[in-house]
Design goal:
The protein is an alpha/beta fold and about 230 residues long. It has helices spanning about 15, 20-25, 65-75, 95-100, 140-150, 190-195, 200-215, 220-230; strands spanning about 1-5, 30-35, 50, 60, 80-90, 105-110, 125-130, 185, 185-190. The two termini are about 35 Å apart. The chain binds S-adenosylmethionine (SAM). S-adenosylmethionine (SAM) binds near residues 110, 112 and 135.
Length: about 230
């Protein structure tokens, strides 16, 4: 997979993608991430990319021209899936991460300041919000999308690390985990996990997953019940 990030602050992205699982995936050539500073596409002699809003008001608005010029300069942009990070976009979910992980090439635009000129919207295929709050810029949001997406590409996680039982994969929260020691400050690991009985362990985990979803996320639990009734 190839991901092109268009940003005014490449240094907010680059150190993060060099680390851990993303860094390893890049090193192993399972993933390519290009980070492009769209300020360099400004025709303004001072490389200005923003201006005051028509109609007045606070803040600066990113101009359409440098963004669209940067987008068109990306090799393969015609076929790539072009994503705009915005708090006004579709709320991001695991199901979208799964869909995006199948794309060959994603281009992700990070806004900043007051946001961007409305006229850049038609150049993008999808608008994504990572939640109902406003960040200073799209970089952290783009990293959320990148991180959650690339771990679903086959071969990116270690063979023994599965994402199939992760929270949200089947619409439920994941069951609780325990590791050594068997008792920690009076808290014991549930006996079933020490039993070696695989079927009993699987049943316990499934039950805990459902219980946890019911108490912590009634919205997901309701959806789960509906799916059970109408598979
Ligand atoms: N004035 C805009 C509004 O109210 O919709 C918010 C602009 S925000 C300060 C600047 C940039 O941060 C946005 O253009 C977007 O790229 C990014 N951003 C902020 N919050 C976000 C969120 N929840 N999800 C995705 N991107 C976000």
């Amino acid at each position: 997979m190839k991901i092109t990030v268009l940003t005014l602050f490449p240094d907010m992205i680059k150190p993060v993608i060099s680390q851990s699982i993303i860094g390893r995936a890049i090193y192993e050539k399972k993933l390519q991430i290009d980070v492009i500073d769209y300020r360099t596409f400004s025709l303004n002699k001072h490389h200005k990319v923003d201006d005051t809003p028509y109609g007045g008001g606070a803040g600066m608005v990113l101009q359409a021209e440098p963004v669209v010029r940067a987008l068109r300069a990306v090799e393969g942009h015609e076929k790539a899936l072009k994503i705009l990070m915005t708090p006004q976009g579709e709320p991001y979910k695991q199901s979208q991460a799964k869909a995006l992980s199948k794309a060959e090439h994603l281009i992700i635009l990070c806004g900043h300041y007051e946001g961007f000129d409305e006229r850049i919207r038609p150049y993008f295929d999808q608008e994504i919000s990572i939640g109902d709050y406003v960040l200073t810029g799209g970089e952290v949001a783009a990293l959320v999308v990148i991180d959650s997406t690339i771990r679903l590409i086959p071969g990116v996680l270690n063979k023994d690390a599965s994402h199939e039982e992760d929270s949200f994969s089947d619409g439920l929260l994941e069951y609780p985990h325990y590791t050594r020691p068997p008792v920690y400050e009076g808290q014991a690991v549930p006996d079933v996990l020490l039993s070696g009985h695989h079927q009993a362990i699987a049943s316990w985990r499934r039950a805990e997953s459902i219980k946890r979803t019911r108490t912590r996320r009634p919205d997901l639990y309701e959806a789960y019940l509906k799916r059970q009734k109408n598979p």
